[in-house]
Amino acid sequence: MLNIVMDLFSTMKHSLFILLIVSLPFWLGAQNSYFPMQCEGEIPSDFLESTSTKIDKDNHTKNKKELGISRKEIKDFNAINNYYVDLLLKGGQIVFGTDMNDYVNKVGGLVIDNFDGIERDDIHFYIVKSSSVNAFTTENGIIFINVGLIAQLENEAQLAYVIAHELVHYKYHHAINTYTRKTTRSSSSITRNKKTVDALEYSREQEFLADSIGFVDAFMKLDYDFNQVLNLFDVLLYSNLPFDEIEFRSDFFNDTNYVVDADYMLGKVDLISNPDEYDDTYLTHPNIKRRRNRMIDLVTNFESKKKDKFIINEDIFKELQKQARFEMSNLYIIDFEYAKAFYNSYLLLRKYPDNKYLNKTITYSLYALAQLKLNDKLGKSVTHYSRVEGNSQRVNYFFIEAKTKDVGFLALKRLWKYKQQFPADKYMSDLLDDITYNLIDEYHFKVGHFYSPLHQRVEGDSISKEDEFKELSKTEYEDLSKYDKIRYDKKYEKYFGSDHNQSSSVFKTENYRYILSTETTDDDFKKYYSSIYNKVEKKKAVEEILESVVTEANVTVTIRETSDTLNIDKMILVNPVYYYVKRGEFKINNFEEKETQISESFVHVAKAGGIDVTLVDVLDIRRNNVAKFNDIAFMNSWLVELENVTTSYGNSIMIPWQTNYLYKIMDKYDMRYISSYGVLDEKGFINPIQKYMNVIGAALFFPASPYFIANIFRGNNTVEHLFYCVDLKTNKIVYYNREQIEGKSNKDFIDLLNYNVINDLNKL
Questions:
Q1: CATH code: domain of residue 624
Q2: 471 and 398 part of one domain
Q3: Do 486 and 382 fall into the same domain?
Q4: Are 343 and 388 in the same domain?
């Protein structure tokens, strides 16, 4: 389970250099909706074959003479390469069997057919649910195409050139060559900076090679427009920007009774700069300008036979591009880039204003940003606007500069509007309850705190509905008495609102109190808001009573949000993981066998303790059971998001986005609890004091000297056992246990650690 990977890896001294961004897949249906896109068809063998089997196959098929490296280097690379590729394949972020896969396969096949030395069966294409504008290749012949790349590409020709570039990396074994070059240099005596620069320089030369050979050996044999190769570098150059540049306007929030404070809207945004001049000395890829300049010299020496941007199908490309752009809102949310998700959805809503999914993603983004502001955590998600260019800068400016009250009640307003449109959506109703409760708990505002609509706002007997109103000049206003000024200001506000009053008003209003003016005319809203207010006040009263009792009696009392006990009698256990670290170095030794051992131990111990555990693991799936594969992928993704939300922001700060799709999983498996479990087995160096004591022991107690001498060389053995359980009903981690104990991870030891966990769960 990837979240366990993150937690356990944090204890390792060895850097693993892996970034797995997980998210929920979708497919695009009618223009008024957007439904989950999940893997389809038969599960490819890449996903079902064990890692150890793949390693053995590669050890027997790779030719050390052809690669120019030793047998040991080949074996080491095969182990590491297959292990990390399988983490990616089985981690929940890879899509196969969809229309997007089919299209990429067709474009890829077209390129391969014109690339000497590579057959179609050598290469497998998969889609990665990542917002990064990228593609990458493995030594195994797998080419991964990110959703973020599809969202930004302008045409099919650019996709074909990306694939041609990646095929060069595969054909010339760049992955294994880079691995051996880095491992060789790491043992040399050159300085660290020089060593790093040389290793990266080699990688940059690989990129230049892939650019040029990909064009000459494949792309230029096709009927695509050669200029699209150069245009692709513009796509890469500005890949950090959204797919379009449209002004973000305050009328998204405004209604007849509320206008966003002008101070919250940035007037002029910074122009988009040219970022291609950056120093690439310490980067793995050369900067875009250097790559483009080299390709200009090459491409301009040839003339396109035709200037086609599409060969397979233009309409399909545009539909898939649209799908990828819809998906980006989802990916941004899961990556906690809520401002990006907000703006991405904002752009798409201009064309698809009635799309339920887009309304949902933009509303969730607003909800999440409001929760972050309420908890002073906004800086962890939103980049400061001074470091943002283009129209995105306006969005970031708004969420940073707007007061917490404004953003919070705008989120409440938006969620209430969504509830009126889609009353059956339980998840969004939960978000509404959550933000309303938190805002009332923070500010204690009753519904009467918000201003009535302008057409109802007649305050005081001195202001009559029939009064005629004359707008005064500044001089005329200053001649009024204090009370006449107050009456004038109230009347002015009644007709025009306070923001437009150019006089030196003594009657001030708070703009956020207009946000819910329209909603205060809705009896259902007033009833709803009051019910949440009463719930907050009731809890507050109980806490105050308990606090006084605790103070007098000098005892500790735990206040539970519910009187229900957990009564955990069954749960889902997702992909248990095992890691072995020897003297700071991660070892891929029989980890699958150990994962089976710890899984069987937990299931057995849990059953003895009265808890029925359903183990879900990719390796247990049959080829035609893609539905279960999708379930596991989703549960992995949701657990990662939940853990990241919890560790970054706190256990109760917000409801995770992917809970949106969790209810069907709960019903399908008839489960309320889901758990994640991992074991880190570490053998370290024995410290000097322990070594000294063992030497003394061997000298003083000669009959036992073999024992002490063995300890000198054995080193410390520790087992770190990590387990947590999540309540799917509340989206909260209800049990977390992390133990590190000296010993070896044999069956009895693991059974004991699992017994401790089950014993704790039975007490909840």
A1: 3.40.50
A2: no
A3: no
A4: yes
Q: What is the pLDDT of residues 497-532, one digit of tens each?
A: 555 455 544 445 688 999 999 999 999 999 999 999
Q: What is the pLDDT of residue 716?
A: 72
Q: Is 154 helix (H, G, I), strand (E, B) or coil?
A: coil
What residue type is 655 in one-letter code?
A: I
- What token pair was written down for 112? 């391969």
pLDDT score at 194: 38
Choose the final residue of a domain: 254, 288, 322. 322
Question: How is residue 447 written in tokens?
Answer: 């519904």
Beta bridge partners of 726: 674, 733
Domain housing 52: 23-90+94-128+132-242+276-322
Distance CA 175, CA 179 (A): 6
Q: What is the DSSP string of 517-528?
A: TTGGG-HHHHHH
Which domain-ending residue is among 268, 292, 322?
322
Q: Which of 82-91, 105-114, 264-273, 701-710 has the highest mean pLDDT?
A: 105-114
**Residue 14 within any structural domain of the chain:** no
Residues 292 and 397 in one domain: no
| Nearest alpha carbon to residue 594 among 679, 498, 515 | 679
pLDDT at 461 over 70: no
Q: Express each pLDDT in 257-276 by its tens digit.
A: 999 999 999 989 888 886 65
Inform me whether the pLDDT recorded for 662 exceeds 90: no
Cβ-contact 501, 511 below 8 angstroms: no
Please check whether residue 171 is in contact with residue 117, taking contact to mean a CB–CB distance below 8 angstroms. yes
Residues 6+ apart with CB under 8 A from 48: 618, 619, 621, 623
- Count of the separate structural domains present in the chain: 4
| pLDDT above 90: percentage of residues in the chain | 50
Q: How confident is the model at residue 174 (pLDDT cuts 50, 70, 90)?
A: confident
584 vs 20: CA distance, rounded Å: 22
Dist CA 397 CA 309 (whole Å): 38
Domain shared by 478 and 578, yes or no: no
* Amino acid of residue 580: Y
> Are 638 and 653 contained in the same domain?
yes
Q: 477 and 354: one domain?
A: no
Q: Is residue 557 part of a domain?
A: no
Residues in CB range of 402: below 8 A, 6 or more apart? 260, 261, 264
Sequence-separated (6 or more) residues with CB below 8 Å from residue 214:
161, 164, 165, 166, 167, 168
User: How much is the average pLDDT of 291-318?
Assistant: 92
pLDDT digits (tens, 9 = 90+) for 127-160: 999 999 999 999 999 999 999 999 999 999 999 9
Candidates 674, 681, 676, 711; CA nearest to 696 is 711
Q: Could you tell me if 146 and 132 are in contact, meaning their C-beta atoms sit under 8 angstroms apart?
A: yes
Are 85 and 18 contacting, i.e. CB atoms less than 8 angstroms apart?
Answer: no
